[in-house]
Design a protein that fits this description.
The protein has about 425 residues and is an all-alpha fold. The protein has one domain. It is built from 17 helices and two strands. A two-stranded antiparallel sheet has the order 1-2. Strand 1 and strand 2 form a beta hairpin. Helix 16 runs antiparallel to helix 17. The C terminus is likely disordered.
Length: about 425
């Protein structure tokens, strides 16, 4: 629980006296020891059989292979050896530990609580401010903070669905605070992701309960309107005329960066320009000229273009395969739960709600992540780890209803 709050939510960065302390290292060592001695070996073996982990392994292999052939091998090696391995280790340990549903529930409590703290810091204007925009700590800029809040709204709603009494209201309020936090960041990608998530939740709701989701949406709209300030509202207003925005017209805007990223993919289709080398490509091979104010080494601002440009076409295929396999696993669990597999009871309901939360987080990430460079981020790997745990640890996974859907001839009836 402690490592989740530190590694994913970055709550310690919101405290000025604690932000410089390497909190992840302090908690990380006990986490690794606990994983070695407390998590059954069979849990790690189960991960090897899961499709998302196989695709993730392919991404890792291609990232390692890209190092000697990249534009800046030293930068790629530094990223893998100092940053990415920590997120990868967290993904493996978390997905194995979360096969146990009690551990998964406690981790979600910690994660949603930590994200709620981030939202409160934004709403209370306690967090860092730069350029009239609010940051969720030293690591997450406003757009990344919005994505973090967005991804955990479905998990707050899951906790509310499994709670009773006052606790149920607490988790619904947490979700509402996250909506307000997204408004405070002024992130347009976060806003679009929020629209997609709301649409997904209303679509997935049972017909007899859909009115509750519509009512909840109206409450969220009111909360969003109360939380947003004039500067953030002005940023969102540019969505009504996207062709006039700098992202459409400026050399360093997202549209032009995406075009150049596709060019890097076309020029280096096998292993790309090297993991974590997109910004280097912008400064070295983009062809941009110094027009008196330097050349910006821009990020990709799109997770898929980031992977494609840095790891080539095989890396892009592996990355998309990882996300697709994660979604398929949750979909199968949800399908089994809706069919009443194992009969009536709390287990199918809980498993179905877990699967819905994972799918909701994926929908939110797919939209908001299309405007950010989050391919290797711990938030992305958290979603993958969660979806792996939902499928591999589900008691419904052993049932016929979870097998791939096949076209079958209708059963013949005896005369």
């Amino acid at each position: 629980m402690a490592y989740c709050v530190i590694a994913v939510c970055k709550v310690h960065e919101l405290l000025p006296d604690v932000g410089n302390v390497s909190a992840a290292k302090i908690v990380g060592a006990p986490l690794i020891l606990a994983a070695l001695f407390a998590v059954p070996a069979g849990s790690f073996k189960a991960l090897l059989r899961s499709a998302p982990m196989k695709w993730l392994a392919a991404v890792v292999v291609l990232a390692v292979l890209s190092v000697p052939f990249g534009l800046w091998a030293g930068g790629s090696f530094q990223f893998l050896s100092q940053v990415f391995w920590k997120s990868l280790l967290f993904c493996v340990i978390a997905s194995a530990a979360w096969l146990d549903r009690r551990t998964l529930h406690l981790s979600l409590v910690a994660l949603v609580s930590g994200t709620t703290v981030v939202a409160l810091m934004l709403l209370l204007r306690v967090s860092q401010v730069a350029g009239a925009r609010f940051y969720g700590g030293a690591t997450h800029d406003p757009n990344e903070t919005a994505l973090l809040l967005l991804v955990f709204i479905p998990f707050a709603m899951y906790l509310a669905s499994s709670a009773k009494g006052v606790a149920k209201g607490v988790w619904y309020v947490s979700a509402l605070l996250m909506v307000g936090g997204i408004a405070r960041t002024g992130s347009r990608g976060g806003f679009l992701g929020l629209l997609a998530l709301v649409g997904w939740l209303v679509y997935r709701a049972a017909p007899r309960r859909r009115w509750r989701y519509v009512a909840g949406t109206l409450v969220a709209v009111a909360g969003f309107g109360l939380a947003i300030d004039a500067a953030s509202l002005q940023r969102l207003a540019t969505l009504t005329d996207p062709t006039a925005d700098y992202n459409y017209t400026y050399r360093e805007g997202r549209l032009e960066v995406w075009k150049r990223g596709l060019g890097y993919l076309a020029a280096h289709p096998l292993l790309g320009v090297g993991v974590e080398n997109f910004e280097v490509a912008e400064g070295v091979i983009s062809g941009k000229r110094n027009e008196g104010f330097g050349v910006k080494w821009s990020a990709a601002h799109n997770s898929f273009i980031e992977v494609g440009a840095e790891l080539g076409l095989p890396g892009l295929v592996a990355f998309v395969g990882m996300l697709w396999a994660a979604a398929v696993g949750c979909r199968r669990v949800r399908a089994a739960a809706s069919r009443g597999t194992m009969g009536a009871g709390l287990v199918p309901v809980r498993e179905g709600n877990l699967a819905d939360a994972g799918l909701g987080a994926l929908v939110a990430w797919l939209v908001a992540g299309s405007f950010l460079s989050m391919a290797y981020d711990v938030t992305t790997l958290f979603i993958v780890a969660f979806c792996v745990a939902v499928w591999s640890g589900s008691p419904l996974a052993n049932y016929q209803a979870l097998r791939p859907l096949e076209r079958r001839a209708p059963p013949t009836r005896a005369c």
